[in-house]
Amino acid sequence: MLKILFIGDIVGRPGRDIVVAEVPRLRAEMGLDVVIANAENAAAGAGITAAIAKAILAAGVDVITLGDHVWDQRGWETEIGGLERVCRPANLPAACPGRELVVVEVKGVRLAVLTLLGRTYINLKAECPFLAADALLARHAGAADAFFVEIHAEATSEKQALGWHLDGRAVAVIGTHTHVPTADASVLPGGTAFLCDAGMTGPYASVLGREVKPVVARFLDGMPRKFEVAEGDVRLSGVVVEYDPAVRRATRCELITVRKVR
Residue 69 catalytic? Predict the structure, then answer.
């Protein structure tokens, strides 16, 4: 049995700090085999840097995934290629730098981890996630025994549809991007673990990780403001997936939340 923890969008320093503090403990106490984390908002709430990626990996995260903020930090496009355990969204144009997936081997199982961008309300050029998923699974079938798929998308309908599309072909289809954990964790009939959104790892006394007052003010008058990362009620949000490689089915999909100890 493989036990996998997927950590939802890491937001700013508060999100990074709780990952560094809690991942080693969670690995030991829960007997985790693989830890995956979306870190596209890890640098001041937008993008990531090589230094931050290395710190997250050093804390015990095995694979870092990214999303539509992948290119927000200046110079990251020249750094991503040197980080073997970081993958960009796999359905970006082929000319983009970075890996389309990462394969980790644990307990004799080669697990491929990849992210797909949704296209509904996402303003970043990307191929159809459904067709891209089909092509990726076929192309890497010889190099991987199982596939863990993240769907970084705005629309819950698009996430659910991809889950059903990949049911029986993926270990899990886990959603990210909207920063709010959903209550629909399940194992689909074909054996694929599914969740619409794993939530945010960062400050929940906020609006999606940002300070409340300037966001509310923007909704009231429409004027531009700087949205700083908030600091209160920091939580690590994610999902635990258990997968039985002998029968090629997930047996558990459960949302978890860890609060920062004050």
Answer: yes
